[in-house]
């Protein structure tokens, strides 16, 4: 589960980005570059919210339950931060307890998704935004965090329904951002530098999981090709 004490993630880095803007303008000698970067800065200023549709999810079939604003940081990924990893977590508790924790502004941690034992998926933060789930700022900015209901020392918590649903979710995320389906890019919380967490633990079957992700990715690609109208398909949209 996401680590507490992630206050460093709350730093919006406006000062550093302002310096970048100045450098870009001087080097490029064009107002277009400045306008593009300043547009991003505008959305990241305190009190400014980038428009979102209420209840919109990034994975079709997920239910939306909003995390506390204190447990994530607004962004415009992958434009401002590339997304090249998925981090697998285990909640160390029930799905409901994880939801309550991520809704608690004092918790200072969250994840984009929670997958239940029954395979139901809850989204609490948009993939556009930075969730405080990894306990490492760089990893938070470049990854999507997926929690799984259960305990690391109880292999029976990792049900067939959970594996299948999580694999479909991860396959969709990997396809959306061009993430390779391998153990360098789909990692456990325990593998994040500087963390003191052990999840998903020794009972998480990585070989099985990656096979399911690859299989789901193939099925999704075939489904998309068969559904695409003649002449090509349009741009991806939330929920796809």
UniProtKB/TrEMBL annotation:
Database matches in InterPro entries: Amidase/PGRP_sf, Amidase_domain, NAMLAA_amidase_2
Low complexity: bias regions: 227-240
Domain N-acetylmuramoyl-L-alanine amidase: 71-201
Gene3D superfamilies per record: Peptidoglycan recognition protein-like (3.40.80.10)
SUPFAM superfamilies reported in the protein's UniProt record: N-acetylmuramoyl-L-alanine amidase-like
UniProt-annotated stretches for the region Disordered: 217-240
Enzyme Commission number: 3.5.1.28
Keyword field contains Hydrolase: yes
Name of the protein: N-acetylmuramoyl-L-alanine amidase
